[in-house]
Amino acid sequence: MAAQAQQVSDETTLNGKTSPHYYLSNPALLLNFLTTSPDVCKRIAAHPTLTNTLIEKILAPDFHDGMRDVVRPALGSFPPAGFAEDFGSILQFLSTLLLYQAEMESVHPRLKELIPKLKEWNKQYKNSHVKTIRNVCERMIGQINGMDPEMITMMRKFQEDALSCGVASCRVRGAASLTVCGTCKIQRYCGRDHQKADWKYHKHICNKGLVDPTQYLKQQIILWVGYLALGMELRECLR
């Protein structure tokens, strides 16, 4: 999906593997945040080029070590995230995208080449404090090999049930209890009052992603292998 256009650049600092921006950039924050929404995942799944580009990046022989060794910048007043957090986030991101693919065989011709890497990382990070890495590696192996349809349905329902109102203080959850923004078809609200209250934040992103052509979406993936840092809310970045 298209994140913020100003982040797209051909500068060496963004595309060189020695730069932290090759792995981490501000579009990553928006992209990874939005994929917590099943609506976003379904729309990304409609553009297989995006998922394929991410798979190619992770399959690169120097991907793991390059991401590990890069110097990480701070995010405003937040300290840099550690490598394990970043690595777990990108694996989780791919797993989420695969959840909404109809047929694994049609995703990428080299998809099964990820399995040896996932097994290696599962073993390498079995004692890591970031449990996401091991959990996602195990889950993604199952996804690639062909996950049980009932399990897929359960995981998708879990994501639907985790949807929440766009007002952070609201405790209403679940797709059945929420209505979707009529413009972007992504953000959910418990009612009109909270939708109006959230507009001062939501207007910055409403319908500004997910509408650009596949080539632009592909650029965003190429620019970023990223993370959702320290649980920071998106609205804090947009103020």
From TrEMBL:
SUPFAM superfamilies: HIT/MYND zinc finger-like (SSF144232)
Positions of the MYND-type domain: 162-206
The keyword Zinc-finger is annotated on this UniProt entry: yes
PROSITE patterns for this protein: ZF_MYND_1, ZF_MYND_2
Gene3D superfamilies given in the database record: 6.10.140.2220
Presence of keyword Cytoplasm: no
Pfam family, one: zf-MYND
Listed InterPro entries: Znf_MYND
Molecular-function GO terms, alphabetical: zinc ion binding
Keyword tags: Metal-binding, Zinc, Zinc-finger
Name assigned to this protein: MYND-type domain-containing protein
Lineage: Eukaryota, Fungi, Dikarya, Ascomycota, Pezizomycotina
